[in-house]
Specification:
Mean pLDDT: 86
Keywords: Methyltransferase, Multifunctional enzyme, Transferase
Organism: Aplysia californica
Oligomer: single chain
Pfam families: Methyltransf_31, Spermine_synth
Strand order of the largest sheet: 3-2-1-4-5-7-6-8-9
Strand content: 25-35%
Distance between the termini: 68 Å
Number of strands: 27
Number of domains: 4
Radius of gyration: 33 Å
Protein name: EEF1A lysine and N-terminal methyltransferase
Largest sheet: 9 strands, mixed
InterPro entries: Lys/N-term_MeTrsfase_sf (IPR051419), Methyltranfer_dom (IPR025714), SAM-dependent_MTases_sf (IPR029063)
Length: 683
């Protein structure tokens, strides 16, 4: 039986509803849940002594359920003559105090302030089908009539799905009146999913009529769980919370079935007192059949950006290694404290069961997995705002049993480490014992931790250093232009390891330069061997090329802020044909051009590589195993030149490794191992 309208405009037409209820007959039609789910909110705001107007009553059993449970002063209205006759005949003997009247809610004849409460279950949603001018005008007429007929202190209770356009119209209208608004989440029995569950969650909006008092702030509240009321600073936060609850409901419906291997759902759990998520949960289903059903994996603080936990492929690998059909990968949010792994388990144990796979027993013992018992620690160092990249955070993260790492994070992309440095305590000179003293010399309080200049945090940075092997002589004077500073780890490493190299680092964002100097120990060299310039790298390269300048090493390490393009590094402008030609003009005849290329779009990445290969005589690449990064090596010399021969490169990397270890015995840089996957032309 087809009971759906042919166009949305029919929802406001009496003829449509007459046809609907004739087809429906005596079977009650419940738009958004039945009395048992709604009774908690209804009886909280409507008392037996209240005179209640039920708008758009239809043939719902809600009014008779309310009547049988003590709320008997009910006036039910609808625009359908058919349904009013049906409902009057059904209830006139058994429920004589309840009346049914054919009334258009936009044109009511009731006197001002006649009702204590107005109840709307689905009528607003049925009428507010779009944001077209005539629709909004009709809704405003309905609101005006409800407001007129409602007594001071009376409640307007609306049961709605609160879709975006409904939210906007409803909140805008009653915010202008400054009437208090409270939203309840209605919890349905079939909410976990399945054929009987709703496609959208249901809400009860409770609006209280008050006298307008100039300057009085509006009261805006939300009840996510039973009777717990959270007051919000602004109505805009109400919309955000509603959208979060809608998303979570839809997620749970999706999780009621098995997801495909290319679908991973992420959601965040917040506490009432913080706008920063306490937990980030990513649900992963294994493509293969696993004997074990369900587990939770807690990612230690500071490790959430690693490939295994931050990428789809990494999480699939983790799920397969753990051997579970469904794995929930849990990240611990910044700005929160966590006592230990056991406390986290206790906090999450009930919530994560809502994410269980199909046919998982509701009382199943779900294992919690992690890497040992160490959940890591974070220590905020500084916070600020960049005019280029937005809010940023500098934090120290404790990993690996106490090792500290300093990180720069831009909060718009909080799962990516912009810069990282390993911290260490500088060596102290031991005090001499005075002659005859038997006291053990005291070390005193620890000095300020310093950045370990011999540590490079990313494989791609080590691969950049490996690219210096293409230079014919590393012990001669070398000029290097680096576009993209970050925390300054790479230029500092090059500066200290090769004393014959002069480096100019160009950075667009002045805030990044300040952070590098203040928190990452970047110190420009007095002898001009390490200079930092705040400028647009595109302009600097073009200007130097037009002046006939030459550089032996050109490194482009710039991330893209444009998420609509499948290129994370660099921005498209840095790989356009004319700019690559400018780089070619600036590069010395035996120099090397190094580019960090990170592309989620394989075709786009390949086209960039092809473009570079057409601009330069020789082009090699190194695809990093656990990242989307490809390091590109390009030069003017032919691939047959000695610098491009594998045996010569191997020898150069061995010498470079030995040189680096002399400067930093505990360095993490091992070039020969890193560069083993290098692809050279004609190989």
């Amino acid at each position: 039986m087809d009971l759906l309208p042919t166009s949305h405009t029919e929802f406001s037409q009496p003829d449509y509803w007459d046809r609907f209820f004739k087809k429906r007959g005596k079977i009650p039609f419940e738009w958004y849940g039945e009395y048992p789910q709604l009774s908690h909110v209804i009886h909280k705001y409507i008392t037996p002594s209240n005179l209640v107007l039920v708008v758009g009553c239809g043939n719902s059993a809600l009014s008779e359920n309310m009547y049988d449970n003590g709320l008997q002063n009910l006036v039910n209205i609808d625009i359908s003559d058919v349904v009013i006759r049906q409902m009057t005949d059904r209830h006139k003997v058994k429920r004589p105090k309840m009346t049914f009247e054919k009334v258009d809610v936009t044109q009511m004849a009731y006197t001002d302030m006649h009702f204590n409460a107005v109840l709307d279950k689905g009528t607003l949603d049925a009428l507010l089908v779009s944001e077209e001018k005539d629709v909004i005008e009709n809704i405003h007429r309905m609101f005006a009539e409800v407001c007129r007929c409602l007594k001071l202190g009376g409640r307007y209770v609306i049961i709605s799905l609160l879709q975006d356009h409904v939210q906007r119209t409803l909140l805008r209208y009653f915010t202008e009146l400054s009437w208090p608004i409270r939203i309840h989440r209605i919890h349905m029995e079939a909410e976990g999913g399945g054929q009987d569950s709703l496609s959208m969650p249901v809400f009860a909006v409770v609006i209280t009529k008050l006298k307008s008092i100039p300057g009085m702030p509006q009261i805006v509240e939300v009840c996510r769980y039973e009777d717990r009321v959270d007051r919000l600073e602004d109505v805009k936060y109400l919309s955000e919370i509603v959208r979060d609850m809608q998303y979570y409901h839809i997620v749970r419906q999706q999780l009621a079935g098995k997801m495909s291997s290319d679908q991973q759902i992420t959601l965040e759990l917040h506490t009432p007192d913080s706008n920063m998520p306490r937990y980030s949960l990513t649900v992963v289903d294994s493509p293969d059949k696993m004997e074990n059903k369900f587990a939770i994996f807690i990612v230690p603080q500071g490790r959430e950006t690693e490939w295994l936990f931050s990428t789809d492929k990494g999480r699939l690998h983790l799920t397969a290694s753990a051997g579970f059909q469904r794995l929930v990968v849990v990240g611990l949010g910044r700005g929160h404290e966590y006592d230990n792994l056991e406390a986290i388990k206790a906090e999450l144990s009930l919530k994560v069961m809502e994410l269980a796979p199909p046919k998982c027993p509701p009382r199943a013992q779900v294992p919690f997995l992690s890497i040992g018992e160490d959940i890591g620690r974070r220590f905020p160092v500084a916070r600020g705002r960049s005019t280029v990249s937005g809010e940023y955070l500098v934090e120290d993260v404790e990993l690996n049993g106490g090792q500290l790492y300093r990180r720069l994070i831009f909060l718009d992309n909080k799962n990516i480490i912009q810069s990282e440095a390993r911290l260490k305590q500088p060596r102290k000179k031991k005090k001499r014992r005075q002659k005859g003293s038997t006291d053990v010399p005291s070390e005193g309080p620890p000095d300020k931790l310093r950045v370990d200049k011999g540590y490079l945090p990313s494989d791609y940075l080590i691969a950049f250093v490996g690219g210096l092997a293409f230079l014919p002589k590393l012990d001669s004077q070398i000029s290097c232009l680096l576009v993209g500073l970050g925390g300054g780890g790479l230029p500092c490493f090059l500066h200290d390891a090769w004393t014959t190299m002069s480096i100019e680092a160009v950075e667009l964002d002045p805030s990044v330069v300040e952070v590098a100097r203040d928190f990452f120990d970047l110190v420009p060299d007095d002898s001009d061997r390490l200079r930092v310039t705040v400028a647009d790298g595109l302009d600097v390269v073009r200007t130097l090329a037009s002046q006939g300048e030459k550089r032996d090493v050109i490194i482009i390490d710039v991330d893209s802020k444009d998420n609509s393009v499948g290129l994370s590094c660099p921005p498209l402008a840095f790989v356009e044909k004319d700019f690559l030609e400018a780089i070619g003009s600036l590069l010395s005849p035996e120099g090397i051009f190094l580019l960090n290329l990170a592309s989620r779009d394989e075709e786009l990445g390949k086209s960039v590589l092809d473009r570079i290969a057409l601009t330069f005589t020789s082009c090699g690449s190194l695809k990093l195993e656990e990242d989307v990064n490809t390091i590109v090596y390009a030069a003017h010399c032919t691939s047959s030149s000695p610098a491009w021969q594998r045996e010569n490169l191997d020898a150069a990397w061995r010498e470079m490794d030995a040189k680096i270890r002399k400067v930093w015995p505990d360095t993490n840089v091992e070039l020969q191992d890193m560069m083993s996957g290098l692809t050279l032309p004609d190989t």
